[in-house]
Design goal:
CATH superfamily of one domain: Winged helix-like DNA-binding domain superfamily/Winged helix DNA-binding domain
CATH topology of one domain: Arc Repressor Mutant, subunit A
Strand order of the largest sheet: 1-2
Structural class: mainly alpha
Oligomer: single chain
Shape: globular
Largest sheet: 2 strands, antiparallel
Distance between the termini: 34 Å
Mean pLDDT: 93
Order of helices and strands: HHHHEEHH
Radius of gyration: 18 Å
Strand content: 5-15%
C-alpha cells in the first residue's frame, strides 16, 4: 500500500472521529442521545413518517414512538396528520429545533463552504467521488457487520 493511500486512510479516520466528537457535543447541548440526534438530522432533510424513521434508524416502531415522544416533549419535532388519511402521520422538525441546530451546525456549514470553495471543479469532482465511494463502503460494511452473530 502506498504512503499516500495510508495517509488518506488516517485522514479519513481522523475526520470521522472529529465529526463524531462534534455530534457528541451537539447531542449534549441539545439534551438528546445520538439516535435522537440522527433522527433530527433525517428530519432536517424533510418530513418523514414514523415507519420511514424506523427503517432509516434501524429501530422498532415502539422505539420510534418513544423517541418521538421524547423529542416532542423537548419541542424538537411535531406530528402532523396526513391530509386525506388521518391514520397516517408525518413528522417534522420544529422551528425551535431548527434554530438550535443552526446555532450548532450553521457556523460549520458556513466555514466548510468557504473551505470547499478553495478547490477547483476538477478537484471537487474527485473529492465528491471519494466521499460517495467511502459512504457506499461504510454502508456495505454496516450491513455485513449487522449480519454477524451477536454475543
Amino acid at each position: 500500500m502506498s504512503e499516500l493511500v495510508e495517509q488518506a486512510g488516517r485522514a479519513a479516520q481522523a475526520l470521522q472521529a472529529a465529526v463524531d466528537g462534534v455530534d457528541q457535543a451537539a447531542a449534549a447541548v441539545l439534551g438528546v442521545n445520538r439516535t435522537d440526534l440522527r433522527c433530527l438530522e433525517i428530519l432536517w432533510q424533510g418530513e418523514s413518517t414514523p415507519g420511514e424513521l424506523a427503517a432509516e434508524l434501524g429501530l422498532t416502531s415502539g422505539s420510534v414512538t418513544t423517541m418521538l415522544d421524547r423529542l416532542a416533549k423537548l419541542d424538537y419535532v411535531a406530528r402532523h396528520p396526513e391530509p386525506g388519511d388521518r391514520r397516517k402521520v408525518k413528522i417534522r422538525i420544529t422551528d425551535a429545533a431548527t434554530a438550535e441546530v443552526m446555532q450548532i451546525y450553521g457556523p460549520i456549514a458556513q466555514e466548510g463552504a468557504t473551505e470547499v470553495a478553495r478547490y477547483s471543479d476538477a478537484e471537487l469532482r474527485t473529492v465528491i467521488d471519494y466521499l460517495r465511494r467511502a459512504r457506499e463502503l461504510q454502508e456495505r460494511h454496516r450491513t455485513r457487520i449487522a449480519d454477524l452473530p451477536k454475543r
